[in-house]
Amino acid sequence: MCGIIGYASKNLDSCSVALSCLKNLEYRGYDSSGVATSEQGKINMYKAQGKIANLEEKIKDHEISASTAIAHTRWATHGEPSETNAHPHKVGHVTLVHNGIIENYSDIKQDLLSKGMNFVSETDSEVACGYINYMYEQTGDKMASIKAACDEFRGSYALPIIFDDEPNTIYAVRKNSPLIVGKSDDGNFVSSDVSAILNYTNKYVLLDNDEFVKVTNDNVEIFDSNLNKIEKKVDTATWSAVEYQKNGYDHFMLKEIYEQPKVVKNILGKFYDDIDFTKYDNIHIVACGSAMHAGMVAKYLLENNAKIRTTVEIASEYRYKENLITPSTLVIIISQSGETADTLAALRLAKEQGAYVLAIVNVVGSSIAREADKTIYTYAGPEIAVATTKGYSSQVATLTNVALTIMKQKGLLEDSVMDTFYKDIEKIETLAEDLINSRDMYKAIANKLYTHENVLYIGRGIDSASCMEGSLKLKEISYIHSEAYAAGELKHGTISLVDQGTPVITIATVDNLYEKTISNLKETKARGGYTLLITTENQNVDNIKDSLDDVIILPKVSEFLESLLVVIVLQLIAYETAILRGADIDKPKNLAKSVTVE
Protein backbone atom coordinates (compact mmCIF):
# COMPACT_ATOMS: atom_id res chain seq x y z
CA MET A 1 0.00 0.00 0.00
CA CYS A 2 1.22 3.50 -0.80
CA GLY A 3 2.28 5.74 2.04
CA ILE A 4 0.70 9.16 2.49
CA ILE A 5 1.72 12.14 4.60
CA GLY A 6 0.37 15.65 4.68
CA TYR A 7 1.59 18.27 7.15
CA ALA A 8 0.55 21.85 7.80
CA SER A 9 3.27 23.35 10.01
CA LYS A 10 3.64 26.41 12.18
CA ASN A 11 7.43 26.33 11.72
CA LEU A 12 8.07 26.25 7.94
CA ASP A 13 9.55 22.75 8.36
CA SER A 14 6.76 20.80 6.67
CA CYS A 15 8.97 19.30 3.98
CA SER A 16 11.60 17.86 6.32
CA VAL A 17 8.94 16.61 8.74
CA ALA A 18 6.90 15.06 5.94
CA LEU A 19 9.91 13.16 4.60
CA SER A 20 10.80 12.02 8.10
CA CYS A 21 7.28 10.64 8.52
CA LEU A 22 7.35 9.09 5.06
CA LYS A 23 10.43 7.06 6.04
CA ASN A 24 8.35 5.41 8.75
CA LEU A 25 6.15 4.04 5.97
CA GLU A 26 8.97 2.57 3.86
CA TYR A 27 8.15 -0.89 5.20
CA ARG A 28 4.99 -0.92 3.07
CA GLY A 29 6.98 -1.37 -0.13
CA TYR A 30 7.21 1.26 -2.89
CA ASP A 31 8.98 2.12 -6.14
CA SER A 32 9.09 5.93 -6.14
CA SER A 33 8.44 8.90 -3.89
CA GLY A 34 7.63 12.56 -4.10
CA VAL A 35 6.66 15.65 -2.16
CA ALA A 36 4.74 18.83 -2.99
CA THR A 37 5.51 21.90 -0.88
CA SER A 38 3.94 25.29 -0.35
CA GLU A 39 6.82 27.79 -0.38
CA GLN A 40 5.92 31.47 -0.15
CA GLY A 41 2.51 30.71 -1.61
CA LYS A 42 3.86 28.67 -4.56
CA ILE A 43 3.45 24.91 -4.98
CA ASN A 44 6.68 23.10 -5.90
CA MET A 45 6.97 19.38 -6.64
CA TYR A 46 9.96 17.07 -6.24
CA LYS A 47 9.94 13.41 -7.34
CA ALA A 48 12.39 10.54 -7.59
CA GLN A 49 12.32 6.93 -8.64
CA GLY A 50 13.48 4.37 -6.10
CA LYS A 51 14.11 4.98 -2.42
CA ILE A 52 13.27 8.09 -0.40
CA ALA A 53 17.03 8.62 -0.11
CA ASN A 54 17.01 9.38 -3.85
CA LEU A 55 14.38 12.06 -3.28
CA GLU A 56 16.39 13.55 -0.42
CA GLU A 57 19.48 13.64 -2.62
CA LYS A 58 17.51 15.43 -5.31
CA ILE A 59 16.32 18.22 -3.03
CA LYS A 60 19.37 18.57 -0.78
CA ASP A 61 20.61 21.71 -2.56
CA HIS A 62 17.20 23.41 -2.35
CA GLU A 63 16.56 25.67 0.61
CA ILE A 64 12.98 24.65 1.34
CA SER A 65 10.98 26.67 3.85
CA ALA A 66 7.54 25.22 3.45
CA SER A 67 4.41 25.86 5.46
CA THR A 68 2.58 22.87 3.99
CA ALA A 69 3.61 19.61 2.32
CA ILE A 70 2.02 16.45 0.99
CA ALA A 71 4.27 13.45 0.36
CA HIS A 72 3.85 9.95 -1.04
CA THR A 73 5.53 6.61 -1.61
CA ARG A 74 4.08 4.92 -4.70
CA TRP A 75 3.55 1.23 -5.36
CA ALA A 76 2.89 1.06 -9.11
CA THR A 77 -0.56 -0.02 -10.28
CA HIS A 78 -1.34 2.15 -13.32
CA GLY A 79 1.85 2.82 -15.26
CA GLU A 80 5.42 1.69 -14.71
CA PRO A 81 7.60 3.00 -11.88
CA SER A 82 8.95 6.36 -13.08
CA GLU A 83 9.27 9.98 -12.02
CA THR A 84 6.44 10.92 -14.37
CA ASN A 85 4.06 8.42 -12.78
CA ALA A 86 5.25 9.21 -9.26
CA HIS A 87 3.07 11.33 -6.99
CA PRO A 88 2.24 14.15 -6.36
CA HIS A 89 0.27 15.03 -9.48
CA LYS A 90 -0.76 18.54 -10.46
CA VAL A 91 -3.50 19.55 -12.90
CA GLY A 92 -4.53 23.18 -13.12
CA HIS A 93 -5.18 24.56 -9.65
CA VAL A 94 -5.01 21.16 -7.89
CA THR A 95 -2.12 19.12 -6.49
CA LEU A 96 -2.71 15.75 -4.79
CA VAL A 97 -1.38 12.39 -3.72
CA HIS A 98 -3.49 9.25 -3.87
CA ASN A 99 -3.65 5.83 -2.27
CA GLY A 100 -6.09 3.40 -3.89
CA ILE A 101 -7.48 2.76 -7.36
CA ILE A 102 -10.04 4.77 -9.33
CA GLU A 103 -11.65 1.89 -11.19
CA ASN A 104 -13.52 4.02 -13.72
CA TYR A 105 -10.61 6.37 -14.41
CA SER A 106 -10.50 5.42 -18.11
CA ASP A 107 -14.03 6.68 -18.76
CA ILE A 108 -13.35 9.87 -16.80
CA LYS A 109 -10.09 10.39 -18.67
CA GLN A 110 -11.78 10.11 -22.05
CA ASP A 111 -14.37 12.65 -20.98
CA LEU A 112 -11.70 15.09 -19.82
CA LEU A 113 -9.63 14.59 -22.97
CA SER A 114 -12.72 15.49 -25.01
CA LYS A 115 -12.90 18.74 -23.03
CA GLY A 116 -9.32 19.61 -23.99
CA MET A 117 -7.47 18.47 -20.85
CA ASN A 118 -4.04 16.87 -21.30
CA PHE A 119 -2.30 14.28 -19.11
CA VAL A 120 1.39 13.50 -18.79
CA SER A 121 1.30 10.28 -16.74
CA GLU A 122 -0.31 6.86 -17.15
CA THR A 123 -1.94 6.97 -13.72
CA ASP A 124 -5.51 6.96 -12.50
CA SER A 125 -4.35 9.42 -9.83
CA GLU A 126 -3.61 12.21 -12.31
CA VAL A 127 -7.06 11.66 -13.78
CA ALA A 128 -8.58 12.08 -10.32
CA CYS A 129 -6.58 15.28 -9.93
CA GLY A 130 -7.79 16.52 -13.30
CA TYR A 131 -11.42 15.79 -12.51
CA ILE A 132 -11.29 17.60 -9.15
CA ASN A 133 -9.71 20.57 -10.93
CA TYR A 134 -12.45 20.47 -13.58
CA MET A 135 -15.16 20.48 -10.90
CA TYR A 136 -13.41 23.31 -9.05
CA GLU A 137 -13.38 25.42 -12.19
CA GLN A 138 -17.12 24.83 -12.50
CA THR A 139 -18.10 25.46 -8.87
CA GLY A 140 -15.40 27.64 -7.31
CA ASP A 141 -16.02 25.73 -4.06
CA LYS A 142 -13.18 23.50 -2.92
CA MET A 143 -15.00 21.08 -0.68
CA ALA A 144 -17.98 20.87 -3.02
CA SER A 145 -15.72 20.18 -5.99
CA ILE A 146 -13.98 17.33 -4.13
CA LYS A 147 -17.32 15.82 -3.15
CA ALA A 148 -18.70 16.14 -6.68
CA ALA A 149 -15.66 14.35 -8.06
CA CYS A 150 -15.81 11.63 -5.42
CA ASP A 151 -19.46 11.04 -6.26
CA GLU A 152 -18.26 9.98 -9.72
CA PHE A 153 -15.25 7.92 -8.62
CA ARG A 154 -15.63 4.16 -8.31
CA GLY A 155 -13.02 2.29 -6.30
CA SER A 156 -10.85 3.28 -3.36
CA TYR A 157 -9.03 6.45 -2.46
CA ALA A 158 -7.34 8.47 0.23
CA LEU A 159 -6.73 11.92 -1.26
CA PRO A 160 -4.82 14.77 0.43
CA ILE A 161 -5.22 17.82 -1.81
CA ILE A 162 -3.74 21.34 -2.00
CA PHE A 163 -5.26 24.16 -4.05
CA ASP A 164 -3.05 26.85 -5.59
CA ASP A 165 -5.13 29.69 -4.15
CA GLU A 166 -5.12 28.22 -0.61
CA PRO A 167 -1.63 26.69 -0.39
CA ASN A 168 -1.45 26.50 3.41
CA THR A 169 -4.48 24.22 3.71
CA ILE A 170 -4.76 20.49 3.10
CA TYR A 171 -8.14 19.10 2.07
CA ALA A 172 -8.58 15.33 2.26
CA VAL A 173 -11.14 12.57 1.81
CA ARG A 174 -11.13 8.79 2.15
CA LYS A 175 -13.07 5.82 0.86
CA ASN A 176 -11.91 2.21 1.36
CA SER A 177 -8.31 3.37 1.89
CA PRO A 178 -7.14 4.32 5.38
CA LEU A 179 -6.53 7.92 6.39
CA ILE A 180 -6.08 9.48 9.81
CA VAL A 181 -5.65 13.04 11.09
CA GLY A 182 -2.83 13.75 13.53
CA LYS A 183 -2.95 16.69 15.92
CA SER A 184 0.06 18.39 17.53
CA ASP A 185 1.04 21.72 19.04
CA ASP A 186 3.33 22.47 16.07
CA GLY A 187 0.88 21.65 13.32
CA ASN A 188 -1.52 19.03 12.02
CA PHE A 189 -1.16 15.92 9.86
CA VAL A 190 -3.03 13.61 7.55
CA SER A 191 -1.52 10.17 7.11
CA SER A 192 -2.28 6.68 5.89
CA ASP A 193 -0.94 5.22 9.17
CA VAL A 194 -0.52 6.42 12.74
CA SER A 195 2.98 4.91 12.78
CA ALA A 196 4.19 7.62 10.40
CA ILE A 197 3.61 10.49 12.82
CA LEU A 198 4.60 8.98 16.17
CA ASN A 199 7.85 10.96 16.32
CA TYR A 200 5.72 14.11 16.47
CA THR A 201 2.41 13.21 18.10
CA ASN A 202 0.38 10.32 19.43
CA LYS A 203 -2.95 12.14 19.09
CA TYR A 204 -5.03 11.14 16.10
CA VAL A 205 -8.55 10.92 14.66
CA LEU A 206 -9.73 7.97 12.58
CA LEU A 207 -11.59 9.05 9.48
CA ASP A 208 -14.45 6.87 8.26
CA ASN A 209 -15.48 6.25 4.67
CA ASP A 210 -16.81 9.31 2.82
CA GLU A 211 -15.59 11.76 5.45
CA PHE A 212 -13.80 14.95 4.46
CA VAL A 213 -11.29 17.01 6.38
CA LYS A 214 -9.80 20.50 6.14
CA VAL A 215 -6.43 20.85 7.88
CA THR A 216 -4.39 23.97 8.63
CA ASN A 217 -1.49 24.45 11.01
CA ASP A 218 -3.80 25.41 13.85
CA ASN A 219 -7.17 23.87 13.04
CA VAL A 220 -8.86 20.65 11.91
CA GLU A 221 -12.42 20.55 10.56
CA ILE A 222 -14.11 17.24 9.73
CA PHE A 223 -17.23 16.84 7.58
CA ASP A 224 -19.58 13.94 6.88
CA SER A 225 -20.60 12.68 3.44
CA ASN A 226 -23.08 15.57 3.09
CA LEU A 227 -20.42 18.12 4.08
CA ASN A 228 -22.00 18.74 7.46
CA LYS A 229 -19.38 19.58 10.07
CA ILE A 230 -18.97 16.85 12.70
CA GLU A 231 -16.94 16.26 15.86
CA LYS A 232 -14.91 13.07 16.27
CA LYS A 233 -13.08 11.51 19.18
CA VAL A 234 -9.34 12.10 19.43
CA ASP A 235 -7.53 8.83 20.16
CA THR A 236 -4.13 8.36 21.78
CA ALA A 237 -1.71 5.81 20.34
CA THR A 238 -0.54 3.39 23.02
CA TRP A 239 2.62 2.36 21.17
CA SER A 240 5.75 4.40 20.56
CA ALA A 241 8.10 5.21 17.70
CA VAL A 242 10.73 2.96 19.33
CA GLU A 243 8.67 -0.07 18.28
CA TYR A 244 9.22 0.97 14.66
CA GLN A 245 13.01 0.78 14.95
CA LYS A 246 15.34 -2.20 14.42
CA ASN A 247 16.87 -1.87 17.89
CA GLY A 248 20.15 -3.48 16.89
CA TYR A 249 18.81 -6.23 14.63
CA ASP A 250 20.03 -6.44 11.03
CA HIS A 251 16.49 -6.48 9.72
CA PHE A 252 12.98 -5.86 10.97
CA MET A 253 12.07 -9.40 9.92
CA LEU A 254 14.72 -10.85 12.22
CA LYS A 255 13.59 -8.59 15.06
CA GLU A 256 10.02 -9.72 14.60
CA ILE A 257 11.02 -13.38 14.51
CA TYR A 258 12.74 -12.86 17.86
CA GLU A 259 9.60 -11.18 19.23
CA GLN A 260 7.40 -14.19 18.45
CA PRO A 261 7.95 -16.29 21.61
CA LYS A 262 6.70 -13.52 23.89
CA VAL A 263 3.84 -12.56 21.56
CA VAL A 264 2.61 -16.15 21.34
CA LYS A 265 2.96 -16.78 25.08
CA ASN A 266 0.87 -13.68 25.82
CA ILE A 267 -1.96 -14.88 23.57
CA LEU A 268 -2.23 -18.59 24.28
CA GLY A 269 -4.63 -19.98 26.86
CA LYS A 270 -7.39 -17.38 26.63
CA PHE A 271 -11.02 -18.40 26.23
CA TYR A 272 -13.53 -16.24 24.35
CA ASP A 273 -16.61 -17.14 26.34
CA ASP A 274 -18.34 -13.86 25.44
CA ILE A 275 -19.07 -15.50 22.06
CA ASP A 276 -21.59 -18.34 21.97
CA PHE A 277 -19.97 -20.62 19.40
CA THR A 278 -22.58 -23.35 19.94
CA LYS A 279 -24.96 -21.41 17.68
CA TYR A 280 -22.87 -22.30 14.64
CA ASP A 281 -22.46 -25.59 12.81
CA ASN A 282 -20.05 -24.36 10.14
CA ILE A 283 -17.29 -21.79 9.90
CA HIS A 284 -15.98 -19.83 6.92
CA ILE A 285 -12.44 -18.52 7.48
CA VAL A 286 -11.69 -15.75 4.97
CA ALA A 287 -8.30 -14.13 4.51
CA CYS A 288 -5.41 -13.44 2.11
CA GLY A 289 -1.80 -14.63 1.99
CA SER A 290 -0.26 -15.74 5.27
CA ALA A 291 -3.49 -14.99 7.13
CA MET A 292 -5.18 -17.56 4.91
CA HIS A 293 -2.46 -20.06 5.83
CA ALA A 294 -3.15 -19.40 9.51
CA GLY A 295 -6.75 -20.23 8.69
CA MET A 296 -5.63 -23.52 7.14
CA VAL A 297 -3.88 -24.47 10.39
CA ALA A 298 -7.07 -23.58 12.27
CA LYS A 299 -9.17 -25.71 9.92
CA TYR A 300 -7.38 -28.86 11.06
CA LEU A 301 -7.70 -27.93 14.74
CA LEU A 302 -11.37 -27.02 14.40
CA GLU A 303 -12.46 -30.03 12.39
CA ASN A 304 -10.35 -32.68 14.13
CA ASN A 305 -10.91 -31.45 17.68
CA ALA A 306 -13.88 -29.08 17.84
CA LYS A 307 -15.83 -31.20 15.32
CA ILE A 308 -17.10 -28.22 13.34
CA ARG A 309 -17.10 -28.08 9.56
CA THR A 310 -14.67 -25.39 8.43
CA THR A 311 -13.84 -23.99 5.02
CA VAL A 312 -10.94 -21.64 4.32
CA GLU A 313 -11.45 -19.17 1.51
CA ILE A 314 -9.18 -16.71 -0.25
CA ALA A 315 -10.92 -13.36 0.20
CA SER A 316 -10.54 -12.31 -3.43
CA GLU A 317 -12.42 -15.48 -4.45
CA TYR A 318 -14.96 -15.45 -1.63
CA ARG A 319 -16.35 -12.08 -2.61
CA TYR A 320 -17.19 -13.27 -6.13
CA LYS A 321 -18.85 -16.64 -5.48
CA GLU A 322 -21.94 -18.14 -3.91
CA ASN A 323 -20.96 -18.81 -0.31
CA LEU A 324 -24.06 -20.64 0.94
CA ILE A 325 -24.21 -18.67 4.18
CA THR A 326 -26.94 -19.78 6.60
CA PRO A 327 -28.00 -18.46 10.03
CA SER A 328 -25.68 -21.07 11.57
CA THR A 329 -22.61 -19.89 9.64
CA LEU A 330 -19.84 -18.10 11.52
CA VAL A 331 -17.50 -16.06 9.32
CA ILE A 332 -14.01 -15.46 10.71
CA ILE A 333 -12.13 -12.66 8.95
CA ILE A 334 -8.34 -12.49 9.46
CA SER A 335 -6.11 -9.52 8.59
CA GLN A 336 -2.97 -8.20 10.27
CA SER A 337 -3.53 -4.62 9.12
CA GLY A 338 -7.31 -4.68 9.29
CA GLU A 339 -7.35 -2.81 5.98
CA THR A 340 -6.81 -5.59 3.40
CA ALA A 341 -9.13 -4.57 0.57
CA ASP A 342 -10.39 -7.98 -0.56
CA THR A 343 -10.82 -9.15 3.02
CA LEU A 344 -12.75 -6.03 3.97
CA ALA A 345 -15.01 -6.50 0.95
CA ALA A 346 -15.58 -10.13 1.95
CA LEU A 347 -16.56 -8.99 5.46
CA ARG A 348 -19.13 -6.60 4.05
CA LEU A 349 -20.52 -9.27 1.75
CA ALA A 350 -20.83 -11.77 4.61
CA LYS A 351 -22.70 -9.23 6.74
CA GLU A 352 -25.04 -8.39 3.86
CA GLN A 353 -25.85 -12.10 3.65
CA GLY A 354 -26.69 -12.27 7.34
CA ALA A 355 -23.55 -13.88 8.77
CA TYR A 356 -22.13 -13.09 12.20
CA VAL A 357 -18.58 -11.88 11.55
CA LEU A 358 -15.70 -12.40 13.96
CA ALA A 359 -12.53 -10.48 13.04
CA ILE A 360 -8.98 -11.32 14.11
CA VAL A 361 -6.76 -8.29 13.53
CA ASN A 362 -3.68 -6.62 14.95
CA VAL A 363 -4.30 -2.93 14.27
CA VAL A 364 -6.66 -1.32 16.75
CA GLY A 365 -9.36 0.82 15.18
CA SER A 366 -8.76 -0.48 11.65
CA SER A 367 -11.63 -0.75 9.18
CA ILE A 368 -12.15 -4.50 9.62
CA ALA A 369 -12.02 -4.17 13.39
CA ARG A 370 -14.69 -1.47 13.35
CA GLU A 371 -17.05 -3.19 10.91
CA ALA A 372 -16.99 -6.73 12.33
CA ASP A 373 -19.64 -7.87 14.80
CA LYS A 374 -16.88 -8.94 17.19
CA THR A 375 -13.14 -8.32 17.08
CA ILE A 376 -10.32 -10.20 18.76
CA TYR A 377 -7.11 -8.16 18.73
CA THR A 378 -3.84 -10.08 18.60
CA TYR A 379 -1.84 -7.18 20.11
CA ALA A 380 1.32 -8.42 18.38
CA GLY A 381 2.71 -4.90 18.16
CA PRO A 382 3.85 -3.16 14.97
CA GLU A 383 5.10 -5.45 12.21
CA ILE A 384 7.33 -3.60 9.78
CA ALA A 385 8.81 -6.29 7.52
CA VAL A 386 6.62 -6.97 4.50
CA ALA A 387 6.87 -10.73 5.03
CA THR A 388 4.83 -11.46 8.14
CA THR A 389 6.26 -13.52 10.98
CA LYS A 390 4.87 -12.57 14.38
CA GLY A 391 1.66 -11.43 12.69
CA TYR A 392 1.13 -14.95 11.36
CA SER A 393 2.05 -16.62 14.64
CA SER A 394 -0.26 -14.34 16.60
CA GLN A 395 -3.13 -15.28 14.28
CA VAL A 396 -2.42 -19.02 14.69
CA ALA A 397 -2.25 -18.61 18.48
CA THR A 398 -5.56 -16.70 18.52
CA LEU A 399 -7.26 -19.28 16.32
CA THR A 400 -5.94 -22.00 18.62
CA ASN A 401 -7.75 -20.28 21.47
CA VAL A 402 -10.90 -20.17 19.35
CA ALA A 403 -10.69 -23.93 18.71
CA LEU A 404 -10.22 -24.66 22.40
CA THR A 405 -13.09 -22.34 23.32
CA ILE A 406 -15.43 -24.18 20.96
CA MET A 407 -14.28 -27.53 22.36
CA LYS A 408 -14.97 -26.27 25.88
CA GLN A 409 -18.44 -24.94 25.00
CA LYS A 410 -19.34 -28.21 23.25
CA GLY A 411 -18.07 -30.37 26.11
CA LEU A 412 -15.25 -31.83 24.01
CA LEU A 413 -12.32 -30.47 26.01
CA GLU A 414 -10.84 -33.26 28.08
CA ASP A 415 -8.87 -32.46 31.22
CA SER A 416 -5.86 -34.40 29.96
CA VAL A 417 -5.74 -32.28 26.79
CA MET A 418 -5.83 -29.06 28.78
CA ASP A 419 -3.27 -30.31 31.29
CA THR A 420 -0.81 -31.02 28.48
CA PHE A 421 -1.66 -27.76 26.73
CA TYR A 422 -1.13 -25.57 29.80
CA LYS A 423 2.04 -27.42 30.77
CA ASP A 424 3.47 -26.81 27.29
CA ILE A 425 2.38 -23.16 27.28
CA GLU A 426 4.62 -22.64 30.29
CA LYS A 427 7.65 -23.73 28.28
CA ILE A 428 6.65 -22.62 24.77
CA GLU A 429 8.49 -19.29 25.06
CA THR A 430 11.75 -20.99 26.06
CA LEU A 431 11.38 -23.70 23.41
CA ALA A 432 10.74 -21.10 20.71
CA GLU A 433 13.71 -19.01 21.83
CA ASP A 434 15.97 -22.07 21.69
CA LEU A 435 14.87 -22.73 18.11
CA ILE A 436 15.47 -19.12 17.11
CA ASN A 437 18.94 -19.15 18.63
CA SER A 438 19.99 -22.19 16.55
CA ARG A 439 20.89 -19.95 13.63
CA ASP A 440 24.01 -21.88 12.62
CA MET A 441 21.76 -24.81 11.73
CA TYR A 442 19.60 -22.65 9.47
CA LYS A 443 22.64 -21.05 7.86
CA ALA A 444 24.01 -24.49 7.00
CA ILE A 445 20.73 -25.47 5.35
CA ALA A 446 20.51 -22.14 3.55
CA ASN A 447 23.91 -22.84 2.04
CA LYS A 448 22.38 -25.89 0.37
CA LEU A 449 19.31 -24.02 -0.88
CA TYR A 450 20.34 -20.59 -2.07
CA THR A 451 21.76 -21.59 -5.47
CA HIS A 452 18.58 -23.44 -6.46
CA GLU A 453 15.67 -21.84 -8.30
CA ASN A 454 13.02 -24.41 -7.31
CA VAL A 455 12.10 -25.85 -3.90
CA LEU A 456 9.30 -28.25 -2.95
CA TYR A 457 7.57 -28.39 0.46
CA ILE A 458 5.47 -31.46 1.36
CA GLY A 459 3.46 -32.55 4.39
CA ARG A 460 0.15 -34.04 5.44
CA GLY A 461 -2.67 -32.76 7.61
CA ILE A 462 -1.79 -29.66 9.59
CA ASP A 463 1.79 -29.96 8.30
CA SER A 464 0.49 -29.32 4.80
CA ALA A 465 -0.77 -25.93 5.99
CA SER A 466 2.64 -25.15 7.52
CA CYS A 467 4.24 -26.07 4.19
CA MET A 468 2.15 -23.40 2.49
CA GLU A 469 3.44 -20.73 4.84
CA GLY A 470 7.05 -21.94 4.60
CA SER A 471 6.90 -21.92 0.82
CA LEU A 472 5.43 -18.41 0.77
CA LYS A 473 8.14 -17.10 3.08
CA LEU A 474 10.89 -18.48 0.87
CA LYS A 475 9.49 -17.08 -2.36
CA GLU A 476 8.59 -13.72 -0.79
CA ILE A 477 12.02 -12.80 0.43
CA SER A 478 14.52 -14.94 -1.53
CA TYR A 479 12.68 -14.94 -4.89
CA ILE A 480 13.20 -18.70 -5.21
CA HIS A 481 10.26 -20.39 -6.87
CA SER A 482 8.72 -22.83 -4.40
CA GLU A 483 5.67 -25.05 -4.26
CA ALA A 484 3.81 -26.46 -1.27
CA TYR A 485 1.89 -29.67 -1.85
CA ALA A 486 0.01 -32.21 0.19
CA ALA A 487 2.49 -35.10 0.30
CA GLY A 488 -0.09 -37.67 -0.78
CA GLU A 489 -0.56 -35.80 -4.06
CA LEU A 490 3.04 -36.24 -5.23
CA LYS A 491 2.23 -39.09 -7.59
CA HIS A 492 -0.55 -37.02 -9.16
CA GLY A 493 1.86 -34.76 -10.98
CA THR A 494 4.10 -32.83 -8.61
CA ILE A 495 6.87 -35.43 -8.35
CA SER A 496 7.70 -34.68 -11.99
CA LEU A 497 9.36 -31.50 -10.67
CA VAL A 498 11.95 -33.44 -8.67
CA ASP A 499 15.32 -33.73 -10.42
CA GLN A 500 18.81 -34.47 -9.17
CA GLY A 501 19.47 -32.13 -6.26
CA THR A 502 16.00 -30.55 -6.12
CA PRO A 503 15.46 -29.45 -2.50
CA VAL A 504 12.46 -31.14 -0.90
CA ILE A 505 11.50 -29.92 2.59
CA THR A 506 9.25 -32.42 4.36
CA ILE A 507 7.32 -31.63 7.54
CA ALA A 508 6.15 -34.63 9.56
CA THR A 509 4.92 -33.84 13.07
CA VAL A 510 1.53 -35.62 13.03
CA ASP A 511 1.95 -39.03 14.68
CA ASN A 512 -0.65 -40.98 12.72
CA LEU A 513 0.57 -39.53 9.41
CA TYR A 514 4.30 -39.85 10.05
CA GLU A 515 4.96 -43.15 8.26
CA LYS A 516 2.93 -42.17 5.21
CA THR A 517 4.75 -38.84 4.96
CA ILE A 518 8.13 -40.57 5.22
CA SER A 519 7.11 -42.83 2.34
CA ASN A 520 6.52 -39.71 0.26
CA LEU A 521 9.88 -38.31 1.31
CA LYS A 522 11.56 -41.52 0.14
CA GLU A 523 9.88 -41.16 -3.24
CA THR A 524 11.59 -37.80 -3.74
CA LYS A 525 14.93 -39.17 -2.52
CA ALA A 526 14.71 -42.01 -5.03
CA ARG A 527 14.51 -39.39 -7.78
CA GLY A 528 17.62 -37.55 -6.63
CA GLY A 529 16.07 -34.89 -4.42
CA TYR A 530 17.90 -33.20 -1.55
CA THR A 531 15.78 -34.14 1.47
CA LEU A 532 15.33 -32.07 4.63
CA LEU A 533 12.99 -33.53 7.26
CA ILE A 534 11.44 -31.42 10.01
CA THR A 535 9.92 -33.67 12.67
CA THR A 536 9.55 -34.12 16.42
CA GLU A 537 11.75 -35.83 18.98
CA ASN A 538 9.34 -38.71 19.58
CA GLN A 539 9.86 -40.02 16.03
CA ASN A 540 12.62 -42.54 15.29
CA VAL A 541 14.68 -41.19 12.40
CA ASP A 542 17.61 -43.59 12.79
CA ASN A 543 16.01 -46.17 10.51
CA ILE A 544 15.57 -43.65 7.65
CA LYS A 545 18.94 -41.91 7.75
CA ASP A 546 19.81 -43.20 4.28
CA SER A 547 16.87 -41.22 2.94
CA LEU A 548 17.80 -37.96 4.71
CA ASP A 549 20.31 -35.34 3.79
CA ASP A 550 19.39 -33.16 6.79
CA VAL A 551 16.97 -33.36 9.68
CA ILE A 552 15.66 -30.80 12.19
CA ILE A 553 14.17 -32.34 15.31
CA LEU A 554 11.70 -30.26 17.31
CA PRO A 555 10.63 -30.80 20.92
CA LYS A 556 7.34 -32.69 21.19
CA VAL A 557 4.51 -30.48 22.46
CA SER A 558 0.71 -30.43 22.37
CA GLU A 559 -0.75 -30.75 18.86
CA PHE A 560 -2.23 -27.29 19.41
CA LEU A 561 1.26 -25.80 19.64
CA GLU A 562 3.42 -27.77 17.21
CA SER A 563 2.80 -25.60 14.16
CA LEU A 564 3.95 -22.54 16.14
CA LEU A 565 7.39 -24.13 16.52
CA VAL A 566 7.50 -25.44 12.95
CA VAL A 567 6.92 -22.00 11.45
CA ILE A 568 9.90 -20.50 13.29
CA VAL A 569 12.16 -23.02 11.59
CA LEU A 570 10.62 -22.26 8.20
CA GLN A 571 10.94 -18.50 8.69
CA LEU A 572 14.61 -18.70 9.59
CA ILE A 573 15.45 -21.04 6.71
CA ALA A 574 13.86 -18.51 4.36
CA TYR A 575 15.61 -15.61 6.09
CA GLU A 576 19.10 -17.12 5.94
CA THR A 577 18.58 -18.20 2.33
CA ALA A 578 17.51 -14.70 1.34
CA ILE A 579 20.59 -13.25 3.05
CA LEU A 580 22.86 -15.46 0.95
CA ARG A 581 21.03 -14.35 -2.20
CA GLY A 582 21.51 -10.68 -1.33
CA ALA A 583 17.78 -9.93 -1.34
CA ASP A 584 16.09 -6.93 0.26
CA ILE A 585 14.76 -8.76 3.32
CA ASP A 586 12.32 -6.21 4.72
CA LYS A 587 11.06 -4.76 1.45
CA PRO A 588 10.86 -7.50 -1.19
CA LYS A 589 10.39 -6.36 -4.76
CA ASN A 590 6.85 -5.79 -6.03
CA LEU A 591 5.27 -6.43 -2.61
CA ALA A 592 3.43 -4.12 -0.21
CA LYS A 593 2.81 -4.61 3.49
CA SER A 594 -0.88 -3.81 3.45
CA VAL A 595 -2.75 -4.50 0.22
CA THR A 596 -5.55 -1.95 0.13
CA VAL A 597 -6.41 -2.36 -3.54
CA GLU A 598 -8.07 -5.33 -5.23
Structural account:
The protein is α/β, with parallel strands linked by helices and 598 residues long. Helix 6 packs parallel to helix 11 (390-409). It contains 16 helices and 26 strands. Strands 3-2-4-1-11-10-12-16 form an 8-stranded antiparallel β-sheet, covered by helices on one side. Strands 5, 6, 7, 8, 9, 13, 14 and 15 form an 8-stranded antiparallel β-sheet that branches. It has a 5-stranded parallel β-sheet with strand order 18-17-19-20-21, sandwiched between helices. It has 3 domains: 3-243, Glutamine Phosphoribosylpyrophosphate, subunit 1, domain 1; 246-413, 3-Layer(aba) Sandwich (Rossmann fold), CATH 3.40.50.10490; 436-587, Glucose-6-phosphate isomerase like protein, domain 1 (Rossmann fold, 3-Layer(aba) Sandwich), CATH 3.40.50.10490. Strand 22 (454-459), helix 14 (462-478) and strand 23 form a beta-alpha-beta unit.
